[in-house]
Design brief:
Length: 278
């Protein structure tokens, strides 16, 4: 007797998709009928699945975790893992195995940011909608199948980032504080900003701030601040007749010479060359 019923589509991506896109390896749904352990390792794939109903267990990163309806799981399948449906409450799943350009970096960056491979999103429907669209795209096999599959896989990954963190209660978390600092930089980019001032304003160690900011945003705080200043300078170069010196002062640079040096390093052209081109 079958231990589960499933609908799956196995896909072999084109060479172009392998080189340029996120691509589907398998996608489908599963309804478990009795306990069955699925165990793998050293599989060049990433597995994402949603528990629609029921419950079970997943073993990953040397730990066993209980999972139930509403949970999402994102696993690097090169590492040992297994999952098993509950005997008393068999689960149903929607899932996709995928790989491709940037898949490894997306996953590693997700984990580096302190997210868990197992999470309960606030909006599960957004995930199930994306998985449904992904399945239907693979089923129809239109000329745009691989491009659309890349889009829906990107949507799922984006949802993992935005939906994986629970609403914080009680203690003010470091990530919330960094979000406020990030917003503060956007609003006060034209002012003189130092780690010491930010440390005092937001009650955080400047060393901890510097380290955690790069961890969360993937860029140092002052590289981010410079990028914000350059962006505002670009807008002024395009939509005003202000001089380079005036723009430098208005966007928080020390002087026009330094502004020109930083702008050239960022854009491979001077501010005036940028103004002429745009």
């Amino acid at each position: 007797m079958a231990k589960s019923t499933s609908n799956r589509i196995i896909s072999t991506p084109s060479a172009y998709a392998k080189e340029h896109y996120l691509h589907v390896q398998e996608v489908g749904t599963l309804q478990s009928l009795e306990p069955h352990i699925s165990k793998r390792q050293n599989l060049n794939s990433y597995l994402f699945f949603v528990v629609l109903d029921g419950s079970g267990k997943v073993f990953y990163e040397n730990k066993r975790h209980s999972i139930s309806a509403g949970d999402c799981i994102w696993i690097d399948c090169t590492r040992p893992y297994s999952h098993e449906s509950s005997a008393d409450d068999p689960w149903s799943l929607m899932w996709v195995h995928f790989n491709g350009v940037m898949a490894e970096e997306y996953y590693n960056n997700f984990i580096r940011h302190g997210n868990s491979f197992l999470f309960r999103p606030r909006n599960l429907v957004a995930f199930t909608d994306a998985l449904t669209q992904l399945y239907q795209t693979q089923q129809v096999k239109s000329v745009f199948m691989e491009l659309l599959s890349n889009k829906y896989l990107t949507d799922i990954i984006t949802l993992c980032y935005t939906e994986s963190r629970p609403e914080h209660e009680g203690e003010y978390s470091i990530s919330e504080k960094l979000i406020q600092i990030h917003s503060y930089l956007e609003q006060h980019y034209n002012e003189k900003i130092t780690l010491e001032k930010l440390s005092e304003r937001f009650f955080i160690s400047k060393y901890h701030l510097s380290r955690e900011y790069k961890k969360i945003y993937g860029i140092t705080l002052f590289h981010d601040l410079t990028a914000k200043r350059i962006s505002h300078a670009k807008s002024m170069l395009r939509f005003s007749d202000d001089s380079v010196e005036s723009i430098a002062n208005a966007t928080g640079f020390q002087d026009a010479g330094y502004f020109i040096k930083v702008f050239r390093k960022s854009e491979n052209m001077t501010p005036l060359e940028y103004r002429k081109k745009w």
